[in-house]
Amino acid sequence: MPKLIECVPNFSEGHDQNVIRQITDAIESVDGVSLLDVDAGASTNRTVVTFVGDPDVAVEAAFRGIKKAAELIDMRKQKGAHPRMGATDVCPFIPVSNVSWEEAIECANRLGKRVGEELQIPVYLYERAAREKSRANLAAIRAGEYEGFFEKIKQPEWKPDFGPAVFSEKSGATVIGVRDFLIAYNVNLNTKSVRRANSVAFDVREQGRVKTEDGTPSGKAVLDTHGEPVRVPGMLKHVKAIGWFVKEYGVAQVSMNLTNIEETPLHAAFDACVESAAKRGLRVTGSEIVGMVPKKSLVDAGRYFLRKQQWSEGVSEEELIEIAVRSMGLGELKPFVPKEKVIELKIASATPVSSLAELKMREFCNETLSDSPAPGGGSVAALMGALGASLGGMVANLSAGKRGWDDKIEYFSDWAVKAQRLKDDLLSLVDEDTNAFNKVMDAFGLSRDSADEKAARAAAIERATKHAAEVPLKVMETAAKSYELLSQMAGTGNPASISDVGVGTLATRACIEGAAMNVRINLGQLKDEKFKSARRQKVQEICVDSEAQFKRINEVVESKIG
After folding, report:
1. What is the rounded distance in angstroms from the CA atom of residue 345 to the CA atom of residue 361?
2. Residue numbers annotated as active site
């Protein structure tokens, strides 16, 4: 798996598209970088850019973006609703795949050193890259903003980590660091009042508000024994929030940073704002995500809202995302396009791979029917398994929605969710089986002109053929898990759908038997007797168990059909 790290620089320019384009062009000029999102805000006068690449690529692309921003943005003229201290205000790195926190921190230090030395811009390290605990929090570093930093930087405790201890009038200062995935999330209110939006923000954010003697915002602050104001914590952990007015939309928003989306997910922040707004006579009308969002956040939100509706959560990821978008009004202010806003979907669309599982039914059948040996029986077996799991999940969903069965919704919903996972796993194996066959063909195509080349070719064929045997074995093991689902649906599911359970059981049995044939034919080509013996035994065990489970479920099905 390749190393992949995300970088999300925030530039203090949201109006001039020519400036923004030159900055993103500089980022994209680095080979290997994938620009995922450019989110410009006019009222905030800020653009959030999201790109990914391997660590070296990401550091170089970030440097070029920061350098171009320093050339084009004059902070002496910059105004906007969002707090800021530099032309490139903040530049975090976020590990995506196969990158450790230590590697990400090394990226932040490399970038900070280059920006400080080559561009003469003061740099502060924050979050996981911070050298001092007092500088871990971005808000603490940025306090005073651009206007206040001319004096702040002179204080010994605010000496930059890199670069000169002199504030740059034109470029300001930059904060570089490493953080967990953060979602910049704004909730829209049916008011233009910043004061009322701030009231909701103070209700929901972790920091809450200062406690006053009379309980009013203008009252005298209550002080602790050290003379510090006592704070009333907000509703949500790991949430930073303020209220502001967005002129381009004509609405006030609660603008939040969700810094730990495992503990405080997107839907929790949305519902907290709904609750607070309602208490204050306001209404939440929708929301927006600034930058990118992990797929899991929307999938989890979709399940949450289905749960609130007392409906089955066992629907596809695509439908869960659509439910989340509608439930939180993510498209109220501008269209929300998942392929553009969801990081995994954006990466996939940036590097498209031909997939059998993505073909329409007729196209898949046409491709199978053609004179090409792939896709063949292995891929078709995996598809039959996916259809078997899908039928089991369908019965679970129909049972969850059956009138009078409200007390069984959670039970059937859990089975439908398991069916979705099995279906997705088996669909991925449709492609994996064909890919394994192609690797065998590639190995056969290797040169064999010399003795060394012949030996290398033989070894490559053996490796590829072993993999080609392992894939259908994995199909068998995965499909066999559907029997438990189908058994439960045969015994407790909606009786009107019992024939669907029967067809699903037949499809699962056919999948396992068909995949077994593919394992055996590949094993016959191998020389490794130990490998062959172990796999043949496993195939035999799965087939025997499959036949027993099929007969047991089929008896229930036949007895109920009558």
Report:
1. 22
2. 82, 433
